[in-house]
TrEMBL record:
InterPro entries for the chain: DUF501 (IPR007511)
UniProt cross-references to PANTHER family, sorted A to Z: CONSERVED PROTEIN, DUF501 DOMAIN-CONTAINING PROTEIN
One Pfam family linked to the record: DUF501
Protein name: DUF501 domain-containing protein
């Protein structure tokens, strides 16, 4: 099955995709669920991967603004937050394990869970995929973003050239055929 919209968003051929985990307000995917092991055999701990370049850029702005450092500091002083983040870590691991056991990444999540915050992309991808109330820091970072899809599909923003209406329609149609 081809994945032209996701590949265009990533600027490379999409690989290891199990399903679309979340769709942007524009209708295109913004988070995919990946296999725990890529087709070439490489272990891949990032189960929920951001594909939308507008979302990725907005998250990068949050990271550059110091949000990760502030969140990590709070984990050391806020017991309830730390418990919630530990539960998010366990939920993430259980989900990935339900797909496939990969010994090389057993017990390892992504994004710094459960003791620090090192990647908001992972935390927001997790929150978008599973919904609110599971990853408290992902939910918090997500709430700091505005609607990245409000300008419409990002597919043209992902590549060096604009897609024609026909190409964008074909890409959207092919991606809508993926498992949701």
């Amino acid at each position: 099955m081809t994945r032209p919209a996701v590949s265009a968003q990533l600027g490379r051929t999409a690989r290891g995709i199990r399903s679309i985990a979340h769709r942007c307000s524009c209708g295109l995917p913004d988070v995919v669920e990946t296999e725990p092991r890529l087709p070439d055999g490489t272990p891949f701990p990032t189960t929920f991967y951001i594909t939308c370049p507008r979302l990725a850029s907005a998250i990068g702005t949050l990271e550059a603004g110091g949000m990760m450092k502030e969140m990590t500091e709070r984990l050391g002083t806020d017991e309830e937050l730390a418990k919630g983040y530990q539960a998010a870590h366990e939920s993430y691991l259980a989900h990935r394990e339900s797909i496939e056991h990969v010994a090389e990444i057993d017990g390892i999540t992504a994004g710094g869970m459960p003791t620090r915050v090192k990647c908001l992309h992972v935390l927001i991808g997790h929150s978008l995929a599973v919904g609110p109330g599971i990853n408290p820091l992902g939910d918090e970072a997500l709430a700091a973003l505005s609607d990245w899809g409000r300008r419409g599909p990002c597919v043209a923003a992902a590549g060096s050239s604009e897609l024609t209406g026909e190409q964008a329609s074909t890409a959207a149609g092919a991606v809508s055929g993926l498992d949701d």
